[in-house]
Every structure is written in C-alpha cells, then in structure tokens.
Amino acid sequence: MIVLNKQTPQYVWYASYGSNLSKDRFLCYIRGGKPEGSEKTEVGCKDKTLPKKEKTYIMNYPLYFAKKSTRWQSQGVAFIGLQEDKKHLIYSRKYLITIEQFMDVVKQENNGEELHIDFDYVKKNRYKTLKNSWYGTILYVGEDEGIPIYTFTADWDLDVPFNKPSKEYLSMIIEGLKRYVGLHNPEIINYIVSKPGVKGSYSDSDIGKLIN
User: Fold this and answer.
1) In this structure, how many other beta carbons lie within 10 angstroms of the beta carbon of residue 103?
2) What string of DSSP letters covers 3-71?
3) Using an 8 Å Cβ cutoff, are 60 and 89 in contact?
4) Structure confidence at residue 8 (pLDDT)
5) In angstroms, what is the C-alpha Rg of the chain?
6) Which residues of 115-143 are buried (b: 16+ CB within 10 A; e: fewer)?
7) Domain limits for position 25
8) Distance from C-alpha of 33 to C-alpha of 122, rounded to nearest angstrom
9) Is residue 61 part of a domain?
10) How far apart are CA 36 and CA 34, in angstroms?
C-alpha cells in the first residue's frame, strides 16, 4: 500500500476518457464549480493545486455509453470495459495529480462517498472494484515516467444496456478530442459515431454539428 507523506506529495496519472477529456470540465473536479452543460456543481478537491502535467494517452479498451446521469440531462455517460483489447482504441488525456487529489476525484464521481484505494493492489491485479457503482472500479492502465496511470469505470464490463448520451455531454468529449488531443473533425466523427450508445442514435452529420 502506498503510504502518504504529508511533506512530499506522491503522484499518479489519472487517465480520462469521458467528459474529463475537456480540461475545463476536469478542473471543476480540482477547483470546484459547475461545468458548462452539466447540471451539477462539483465541490472540488481539498488540494486545489492544478495538475503538474497533462498528456494525450492511448488506451486499448472498449468505450461505450450507458445509464442515465443526472449530471448530464439524465442520459448516457462514458464507461470502458475491464478487458484490454488491442482492437479497441480510446483517446484519453492523463493528468498528473497527487494521490489525495485522485481519491477526491473518485469521491466526487461516487456521490461524495470516500473509497479506500490500495493502489499497489490495483497495480498488481489490474483492477479492483471498491463499490458496486458507476465509477467504483479502479483500473491500472500503464505507467509513464515511472508513475502509474489509473482510471475508473464500472464493474459490469459491457453487460449493461447502452444508452444515448446528451449533446451537452458529447460536446465536452468532442472539445477535449479537438482542443487537447488534436484530432481533426473527420477523425472525431469516426471515433464518436461508432461507439455503443452513440451508434444508431447520432449520425455523422449530428456529430459534425457538435464540433465547434
């Protein structure tokens, strides 16, 4: 288990794949505030220091949209499967934040419930479900600069009905893909429109209209 040192913060990378692809949206989890298009004001982390670094990161997991989020117009939100699969590609943005900040982000994603994370266990076993909730499963997805990379998802591993995400939610993802990942419009459309929950609910033209 990682032991927290109050004098020397320890860091992890948090790899985002949903609305937190947008830096402005993610910083509401750090500083607090209401993201554009969201219906919930976030409390932020105890430590409101901005991420030390951020980078684009490719993950090989299936991405899909499910459930009905009260944050996002009671429509679907993004999850990833638990099994790594090279035929799938996810664009993510990873943020270098302290362990305590990561735990605070997880807490906000779990309706304010504080979850104990044994980071060493997760790294050794690849993932661990802390709570049977939407984002109660912590995944270890790699390492960069000697620092582990973690994200979170649900434990049902695609065994759930897919659901259409709202335009507001997709707009956050699209903003992150364009502004921070650097994808061109056709790449964004091809990436988004093929994902379960979006496929059949939005056309190429619909996605194109959401790109600023």
Assistant:
1) 21
2) PP-SSS--EEEEEE-SGGGSHHHHHHHHH-B--TT-S--B---SS-PPPS-EEEEEE-S-EEEEEEETT
3) yes
4) 56
5) 16
6) bebebeebbeeebbebeebbbbbbbbbbe
7) 11-162
8) 30
9) yes
10) 7
- What is the model's pLDDT at position 64? 97
Total-model pTM: 0.92
160 Cβ partners below 8 Å, 6+ apart? Answer: 66, 67, 154
Looking at the domain assignment, is residue 192 inside a domain? no
pLDDT confidence of residue 9: 66
Q: What tokens appear for 26 in the block?
A: 């993610």
Is 3 contained in some domain?
no
pLDDT score recorded for residue 36: 85
Q: Minimal CA–CA distance to 15: which of 107, 151, 122?
A: 151
The parts of the chain modelled with pLDDT lower than 50 are: 1-7
Provide the 3-class DSSP secondary structure of residue 73: coil
DSSP 8-state secondary structure symbol assigned to residue 129 = E
Please tell me the total count of domains within the chain: 1
| CATH (domain of 74) | 3.10.490
- Could you tell me if residue 188 is inside a domain? no
User: What's at 206, amino acid-wise?
Assistant: D
Q: Which helix or strand (DSSP H or E) is residue 130 part of? A: none
**What's the chain's length in residues?**
212
Decide if 58 contacts 46 (C-beta within 8 A): no
C-alpha 30/C-alpha 74 separation (Å) is 24
